[in-house]
């Protein structure tokens, strides 16, 4: 759904500042320099604090930011570094080719399934629990300190416990992802819910809304954009627990492949695995951002 | 509320409220009778309790002791008989202007007695409010696309949707510029004439208070209390030129002086006067006292 700008009565618009002549002094720095011929040259403004730059410049610099490390990597590898210490990009790509023939898609599939299921189970519980913590102070008092405490426990340390409690099949991997994600998610959801402006809640109350109606018709819709952002960010964290999760008797998956490569010091495969996880994460992140723009047209509407 | 619901009065006797852990009480022995259909304004410096009293009437704050009734019902919490307009951040950004205005229609409190005539009436009501508040051309816009003045118009229309017998307004024009505020003053007067509702309005702006009110309730801080109640000696229908009338200016002067005397600002001003006198003495060569 796209929003077209509506014809608004100009008298109702906030006053528009008159177009200003570029000042000759900006941020205390003289804008004009005189060179030897006495000609006045404008100084570029790109470095002032929070100063915006054209989109082309932004994306140009972003491309540079990504390509320069790649270039450095190429040069470092080509300059004769030990290939175990630093495999060249060519080697990594070659390894990916071999891997493709050796079940790469299957590994990507099983790892993605583990992460997404662990994250989804987390979300299924964290959303209602976080909502309750953010809505009722007694619930917050009861649950938040405990959650805060558990949050700091390292998921890695839970591996032997998970093996005893759950076993060593898929649910064990999912459980590790869950432990790594759930407690952070609950606290973030509670925070998102608490950010709903009190005036929105009180307005509904003065219109006769019950507590359930306030939650259902004000708090949840109001918090939705923040909640979707929380889901996006926690999905990123869930991915970082993949390798940890696949420590539990895995025999497939990207994390498993990285761990196996580690044992044989196949650094090119380790690089390949890590880069692949990064790329998948980036793709999912972009999908979330796209969903955010589509789901909340009112947030991205033009003024 | 059906179209023939009358506006209600507010009755307040010996109302007390102290926030736990606070130094001075927020409200002390408040006695007030607001007549049905009256436009009454609470005015005073910060901390005088005007917003607290308004929110207590709204049922958003509890009171410690005393009597508070609207119509003949004791106030025990918020309800659809007392609609409220807030200063900002109360509109629902995910709903269009029209859906914001119609919001109360989806609440159980409003669907209790639903007839088809009621549904028709609601559609007509929303349309009428859009026209009354000058919002027809932005009915499908989102609040974020509107200026502050337009947003407050939506907030007022939304509050009026259910024909509340009492309309409470907490510094609704405080965040607006002077020109927009003038337009809103005449708009809210117009609304009050057309809609049968009691309006309780809170502001720190004395001019706004006198311009809008039938009666002005002057409040003072530390502890929060009603200082005095003044009937505005101007005809019911106000025009902007009345702001220069002698009665207007006299009342304005009276209220401002009273605010100064009761808010502790007088001490600051006396101190300033004393300091500038000493400075003048030093400058003229006389020895400082």
The level 1 CATH classification of the largest domain in chain A is Mainly Alpha
Number of helices of chain A: 11
Q: Are there runs of chain B of 5+ residues with pLDDT below 50, and where?
A: none
Mean pLDDT score of chain B, rounded? Answer: 91
- Find the CATH topology of the largest domain in chain A: MetI-like fold
Strand content of chain B: 15-25%
CATH architect. name of the largest domain in chain B = 3-Layer(aba) Sandwich
| Distance separating the two termini of chain B | 69 Å
Chain oligomer state: heterodimer
Order of helices and strands of chain A: EEEEHHHHHHHHHHH
Give helix % range of chain B. Answer: 25-40%
What does this structure look like?
The complex is a heterodimer of chains A (303) and B (289). Chain A is mainly α and 303 residues long. Chain A folds into two domains: 42-80; 92-295, MetI-like (MetI-like fold, Orthogonal Bundle). Chain A contains eleven helices and four strands. Chain A has helices spanning 55-78, 89-101, 104-135, 137-151, 159-165, 170-194, 198-205, 211-240, 242-245, 254-263, 267-295; strands spanning 25-26, 29-30, 32-34, 40-42. Chain A has a two-stranded antiparallel sheet. A two-stranded antiparallel ribbon of chain A has the order 3-4. In chain A, helix 3 (104-135) runs antiparallel to helix 4, helix 7 (198-205) packs antiparallel against helix 8 (211-240) and helix 8 packs antiparallel against helix 11. Chain B folds into two domains: 7-81 and 168-289, Rossmann fold; 91-163, no CATH class. In chain B, strand 9 and strand 10 form a beta hairpin. In chain B, helix 7 (206-212) packs across helix 8 (246-262). The termini of chain B are far apart.
